[in-house]
Every structure is written in structure tokens, then in C-alpha cells.
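tool=predict chain=A
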Amino acid sequence: MKYINKKLKIEGVSVENIAKKYGTPSYCYSFNKLKENIKDFKKNFKSFSPLICFAIKSNTNVNLIREIKKFGLGADVVSMGELMIAIKAGINPKKIVFSGIGKTSKEISFAIDKKILLINAESESEIREIDRIAKLKKKKIQVGIRLNPNTDAKTLSQISTGKKENKFGVNEKSFITLVNYCKKSRNIDLKCLSVHIGSQILNYKPYEKMLKIISKIIKKINFKFEYIDLGGGMGISYNFKNEKLNYQKYNFAIIKFLKSHPSKIIFEPGRCIVGNTGILVSKVIYIKKSEKKNFIILDAGMNDLMRPALYGAEHKILPSIMKNQNSKKIYEFVGPICESTDKFITLKNFKKLEEKDLVTICDVGAYGMSLSSNYNIRPKSAELLIKGSKIKVIRKRQSYKDLI
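tool=predict ok
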């Protein structure tokens, strides 16, 4: 994203041309940024060559997942639908891990039939259900057990997953019990210790603490895991501070861990792969003036981008044309949905806007379209992949005919 002759462009295409040809709101993804993110991730952890399983929940567009698959990535899935999408995109089942606390019998059976790498179980009941289904199918199934390491990732409470009060994984005592259960089972092949402590993490220290906890437990149970699944959660900068997780320090912590516990590392990144590849192009419908601020009413709403309403998340907003004059009023960017939480951000000193102007909401590649809905009977946006000056429609705009 950059301004060329005062016009905002994503790669070689102007936001104005996108809106003119494909309408608004529209999701657009930069292929070059996607490639850069994947190469950067691989480079930082190349010393131990992890299996990188893209978190499908962050972006479920099958065409985008096909592009990700070309770089050799696998998939982390949390539902039967996500597993089906991963397979449809051509991802090798032996590079797929199935996470999530509420896998149904049907989902477990489907995963077994597809011969995926691992089912990461999160409770005693789930382990017993996998065992039961595997016995019926006369198969031995590779599983992981997800440990809850009681580690605070120092992120939003809504996206914390590694503390003892969170619903995910099992505590140390239960973990040891389940390891012993799996040892005795004829139908379960325990291969992996799995963890995931949260999302949008920008400090390596919670990961460092997590690794120390894992190390102590492995020493205590004296069991060699073929895989250690460290989950994902690596964050991106959503503001102009350009905060970034220090991959090198995380890498050093993992290398130190592997000296005592040699195994294959699995990562489940989502946001850091696709988050900053995406923008949402939107049009100003009306400007509603009030005494202290002006409401900038966009044609994109919380049904298109849920994160601000769900988490209080803030995304940068940029004008499509860099004007010289700034507004004297505070701008509150809102959508057309009949909910007070349908607002994106409040800004001072924004470039002066007029009705029908275009704006771009930044860094929406992760948990943007995948969290979108048809609330208020609103069709879902188009999705476009930008490669240089070429635009490829990777999901057509939903029509009212499709919806109703």
C-alpha cells in the first residue's frame, strides 16, 4: 500500500479503479505481501525447518489457500468445513492438523478417513471418542494432546487461550493422565504435545515461558514426542507504531528447547501470514454532522468487518486520495448496521472527506472476511487478489438472489 501521485495503490492498482470496476465494499489481497510474509516466516525459523500449518480460520477463501499451499504450507483446521476447504485447496492431508475443543463424532470420523497428520485432542472425553471410533474402523490414529500451560499471552481477554480459566486444552495433571491412557490404547498413537496460548502476540516472552513449562512436563513424564505443536498467535501491527514480534528471540528460545527435547516443530500461523495482505475498500455514503464530531457513514459495516465490534479492535483507515486539507472536526467512522457497536474508529486530523469519497480499511486479511456475516440481510463483499497490475476475482460479490 502506498500513495503514487496522491492516489492510494495496492501493488500496481489504484483503490479508485478497484471501486469503479468491482464496486464497494470489496476485500483486496496483495499477492506480493503474502509471498513476502511466508518467506520471512520461513527464513526466521529455517534452523529447525518447522512444519507450517496455515490457520484456515483466519482466512477461508479457497483460492487464497491454494496460493498459500504453493509455498509448501500445510493447514491447521478447527472444523470439518475447514478440513474440506483445505483438502479442496490441494493441501496434503499429511500436513493437516485438526484442533478445537468440540469435534463431533462425525468430524473425528471424517478426519480419520482423510488420513490427516494429527488430531489434537483437548479433553479426556475427546480422547476416548477418538479411541472408540478408531477401534470401530480398526485403525491406529496419530493424535496430539493439547496442554493448557496457564501462560498469559498479555493480549486481549477475548483471544486469550492459554490461561487456566480458558476453555482450551487440559492442565498438567490431566495431561499426564491422558498420556498414560494413550500408552495403553491399541488404537491411539500419541505423537504430539500441542499448545496455543493466544492471538495477536507481539512479545516473545510469553512464548519463552510456555517453552519452559512444556520442558518441565516432558521431563516429568519421560515421554518422547515426535512433534511439538507450538500453535500460532504471532501478531501484526494494526497501528502506525509498526510493532512486531521478535522472531529471532523466539527462534533462539526454540533452539534451546530442542537441545533437550529433539522433535519436529509445528507452527499454526494465520494472522502473521495474511493479516497485512488485505484491505477493505469502502465508500462514504453520508457525512452526518454533529456538534463535536462528524459521523462518516460507510457502505461497509460490522457484518463485513466484525473485529472492531467484537474485540474493540482498531484498524488504520486511509483516504483513497491524499488531499491537502485536514478536517477541523473529529471523524467517527461507522457502518450502516442498526447496532451502536457498528463503528470502526474515531480519528482527529483526518484528511477532509466528502460524500461518495473512498476510504481503505487496512490490515483486514485475517479474521475479516472469515468473520463476516449476512446480518441485516446484507450480501457479502467481493474478494480480489492483486498481482502487480492484475486483478483476479477470487470470490464473487454475493447477490440478493444468492442470499434470499
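The domain at 31-271 is CATH 3.20.20.10 (TIM Barrel). The first strand starts at residue 2 and ends at 4.
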